[in-house]
Amino acid sequence: MPRAPEEIAAIERAKKRLDKLDFYPRPVDVSRVRIFTTPWLFQVPGFRRFTGYEFGPLILIKRPLEQTSDDLIVHELCHVWQSQHRHVRMWLSYLFQGYRNNPHEVEARAAARSR
């Protein structure tokens, strides 16, 4: 299924913001990134507190893209970027460091605040 123009534009806007940051040696690769609206996922216990979730090159969002902030897309695309550079380390960090103060979450929040 090809990407819709709105999806391409949202990814490009987020990438443009991330490209200004120097978190990793290579810029985020968006060639395989997709955004899907999956409200059912956010009804599953454990996901209810989230409005977006990254799973490899997939960004899953609770609301339709036109109702989703660019900041959330930047946050989730930052997780894609993290995953591209240290996939196993990133996922293990949530097991050992939790969510709230996890360095990957702190970094993604900082990315979302960037302009």
Short characterization:
The protein is mainly α. It contains three helices and three strands.
What does this structure look like?
The longest helix has 28 residues, at 70-97. This protein has one domain (5-113). α1 crosses α2 and α2 (70-97) packs antiparallel against α3 (103-113). It has a 3-stranded mixed beta sheet, covered by helices on one side. It is built from 3 helices and 3 strands. The mean pLDDT is 96. The protein has helices spanning 5-18, 70-97, 103-113, and strands at 34-37, 52-55, 58-61. The chain has 115 residues and is mainly alpha-helical.
Structure keywords:
115 residues; mainly alpha; 3-stranded mixed β-sheet
Spans where pLDDT lies below 50 across 5 or more residues: none
Order of neighbouring strands in the sheet with most strands:
1-3-2
Mean pLDDT: 96
Structural class: mainly alpha
DSSP strand (E) fraction?
A: 5-15%
Shape: globular
Distance between the first and last residues' Cα: 31 Å
Tally of discrete structural domains? 1
Helix percent reads: 40-55%
The major β-sheet equals:
3 strands, mixed
Number of strands: 3
H and E order:
HEEEHH
Total DSSP helices: 3
Radius of gyration: 13 Å
